[in-house]
Amino acid sequence: MGRTVVQITFIIFLLVLASTQPNKDDWDIYSFHINSTVTSRYATTVITSRVANRMNESKEIEFHVQIPKNAFISKFRMFIDGQVYDGVVKAKEQAQQQYTEAVSRGESAGLVSSVGRTLEEFKTSVTVAAHKKVTFELTYEELMKRTHGKYELQIHARPTQPVSDFKVDVYIHEEAGISFINVKGGLSTNALANAITKTHADKQAWVYFYPTVDQQKMCDSCGDQGMNGDLVIVYDVNRDNGLGHIKKSDGYFVHHFAPSDLPRIPKNVVFVIDQSGSMEGRKIEQTRTALIHILNDLAEDDHFGLITFDGIISYWKRELVQANSKNLESAKNFARNIQDRGSTNINEAVLQGARMLNAHNREGSASILILLTDGDPTSGVTNLEKIQSNVRQAIAGKFPLYCLGFGFDVDFNFLEKMSLQNNGVARRIYEDSDADLQLKGFYEEVATPLLTDVTMIYVGATNLTQTNFSQYYNGSEIVVAGEITDNNIETFTPQVVAISSNRRIMFSNPNETVESTGTVSDDRIQRVWAYLTVKQLLDKELQLSETEKEKVKKEALELSLRYSFVTPLTSMVVTKPPGENTDVLHKPKEGETPQRRHFTGVPVNRRTRIQHVPVHGTGMAKFKHAPVNPPRHQAPVRVLKKNTRGPAPRVRVRIAANVPQATDVPLLHRFLINTENQTVPLCFDVSGSLQLKLLHHPSEELFVNGELDSVVNGGFNSIFIHFQTDHHVEIDSRGVTVREGQTVAHHTGQDTITAGSVTVVVHNKKIHVTAGKMRLVILVHEKNGNKFLWPVLKKHRSANDSEGLLAVKPAVYEVVQQVPVTKLKIKNQEIDVTSDNATDYSVDPPVTKNCWLMSADSALQRPLADFSVAQL
Ligand SMILES: *[C@@H]1O[C@H](CO)[C@@H](O)[C@H](O)[C@H]1NC(C)=O
Ligand SMILES: *[C@@H]1O[C@H](CO)[C@@H](O)[C@H](O)[C@H]1NC(C)=O
Ligand SMILES: *[C@@H]1O[C@H](CO)[C@@H](O)[C@H](O)[C@H]1NC(C)=O
Ligand SMILES: *[C@@H]1O[C@H](CO)[C@@H](O)[C@H](O)[C@H]1NC(C)=O
Ligand SMILES: *[C@@H]1O[C@H](CO)[C@@H](O)[C@H](O)[C@H]1NC(C)=O
Ligand SMILES: *[C@@H]1O[C@H](CO)[C@@H](O)[C@H](O)[C@H]1NC(C)=O
Ligand SMILES: *[C@@H]1O[C@H](CO)[C@@H](O)[C@H](O)[C@H]1NC(C)=O
Ligand SMILES: *[C@@H]1O[C@H](CO)[C@@H](O)[C@H](O)[C@H]1NC(C)=O
Ligand SMILES: *[C@@H]1O[C@H](CO)[C@@H](O)[C@H](O)[C@H]1NC(C)=O
């Protein structure tokens, strides 16, 4: 039975794809080239796709590729009928303003979005006349980062159809000499392995990948739609063990410093591990596994500490101890017994970690603090700025703090800012089967400190990128770029001063002349400088307060514009023939579309956005809803009277800006119901400002109700929680109101609020509610300046005797008929459905999903009236 259903799902999925994919007969990608040139670890990649409209009528032709997150797009053009249409990089605000209309139509926003761990996608389309051709050309640039002793150039190829002239050309030129080069990735396996040619000659290497049409259909994850996968070029350069490599050109230099023959420095490392309730299940298991591996890798002269935390801090030992076998055994035992429980006191945990490192003698060693967490702070100090300032004070620049954010419930910005403020970096750990390997991989990057207090000095240079580095690890690399004053190589003197164990050492190499690119003028070194400067300014901006940000932002913006980089501050306006919609593309923020993290490579069509995403088995339905009516039907001022349980009814006034008076058409709110194991969720509409039962658990005396917004077609305008007769919490987008007996207290701003055993932690865009065993996160979304709430149930004791929308079980259905109307079978009942879209507001930012639309009663398998409540 299960199998049949799965097969049917798959067939349906293909049918849906087939009916919505651009028809292959309509247009033909007759040539697809990817050309990557790498010099001094700076890769410039050009993707060229040539497409012909084979039809008698004009057709919309799409260009859709995926590029590394770390890269900046620097050019995009289209050639149509002898005309060139060059994209223009503009300040983001300016681009947005200019094209607000397009943006509000939803045509232009998010043309670039994150996909998976390392990629983001670029998408645009253009209408091409009958029998005409179009050439798309996209250029992006990236400085490769050395980790684990190698560089990796990732090339993603998914042309969406087999292409007769398909080529990937990679050319690498490294003055230091290439020590090894390998080709990895899904496209280097099986039938495709034969399509790769690799040539390696000292300073240069070439990789050609020319698969035939047949080969393009035969590889893993390839099919009738051609290839879909990565080619990853892995290489390293020869190391001299002095000052490293300096390359200069046109008045700019870039210095790569990565000595490897130094002795390792003993390290002091403290692991601060989140064991709060949300780590439950696989996450905590993987953390234990990774921790045990990591402990096994510690060297005997290392010292270490282990702290686990939820609301309470647990120490394995109060002080750092030596990593001898006896201590390691005991620590591993401790690690095996880490259990999930309770809330998240990040502040106290990190401060205790810092205290342990501060108390330990750091002379001749390298100290490292590693925090692993999967959520926002929910106990102790919860104000994010306060935590950051406490941590900064406790660490005082003495050692780096690395923050590992597990999954997508973490406020990654917060972790990133906290790491950067303390000489570290933040890394996301993706919830997946290999999470333990990701954790271990990160640890290995910092496992072997070779130098501390590294100062890079360049006499005769200016406009330098970062020159001070608290630690240097084996397998990594320090890169500094700058401008040579007056382009005078004579006075330009690079030098590195650092501490190796207890010795102060200096690297300088007066004998070696600085290598120059010769007579050929090459702006690439200057672009490396610009790339690095912009990246570092963006990091710096993140750490600064609002008032200090402006200057740094301005500088980063100017450079982005000058070098035509699409960065988080700029956008590319895609120029098209007259009469077509303008596309404005922005660079997405890290982790902006969490849904896509499981992207399995099934082509996603622009028109339907079918997402092939495993449904999360929380056992709870997730509710989302889609905008149906545009907000122009709003009354400008709306007064709602509410009969709350408090002493007096409250009056709420909402002012919606700038909208003409209109008849009050009821708004439609669209909800999504996840499915047990189908790809496409169900959805249904609810009209008006209903008061809904979200979660009722009479035996626990827990009641959560919500009122749908009647002003914007967003989610809820308020959510009420009643717990154990006496505690009443009302949450709306402006604050939290607590009623206990006759006492009423209002709270606004970031705060932690308790009412009996109900705890509400308010962050900027997220509100955590804990009541007994229930954990609820209320996301605060914003649309057209109006805020609305969306509840997401994270944990509950049993869904068994709970009622309400949040307790609805994932749907189980089969598709029993496709034409003339689609019919789904749910519990022996056949229901007519239509394919539609819904916005999933249970994630931040929201994403649009394809869904099967039906009536609320059918989707819920009981009357919607059962979910309405008379009183909030
Ligand atoms: C869902 O998948 C599981 C295992 O993959 C299977 O046991 C179960 O029967 C499936 N349920 C439905 C409704 O297809
Ligand atoms: C790839 O790009 C480089 C630099 O623009 C150019 O010199 C080279 O000819 C291109 N290679 C191919 C195969 O197009
Ligand atoms: C294109 O037009 C020609 C002549 O008008 C016609 O014979 C042919 O069938 C058309 N082809 C398509 C694919 O419509
Ligand atoms: C650093 O890495 C290199 C090459 O990966 C290795 O040969 C060397 O032994 C490492 N140094 C230490 C101290 O582990
Ligand atoms: C580079 O430095 C010079 C002088 O130090 C300064 O005038 C110039 O503005 C700097 N350029 C940039 C792009 O920061
Ligand atoms: C870099 O370190 C040196 C010496 O440790 C110090 O004098 C200098 O101020 C530091 N520079 C920056 C920008 O922090
Ligand atoms: C520099 O050159 C001198 C003389 O040629 C030589 O003795 C010395 O070892 C060289 N130093 C380095 C660091 O290569
Ligand atoms: C779903 O959204 C896509 C754009 O993402 C749009 O092209 C399509 O028409 C929508 N489908 C429906 C039924 O509204
Ligand atoms: C659900 O309820 C039934 C009957 O009340 C009980 O037997 C079962 O153990 C419950 N399941 C869970 C997961 O609580």
From TrEMBL:
SMART domains: VIT, VWA. Residues 268-446 form the VWFA domain. Residues 535-562 form a coiled coil. Residues 583-595 have a biased composition (Basic and acidic residues). Residues 1-20 form the signal peptide. Transmembrane segments: none annotated. GO terms for molecular function: serine-type endopeptidase inhibitor activity. Belongs to the ITIH family. This is Inter-alpha-trypsin inhibitor heavy chain 3.
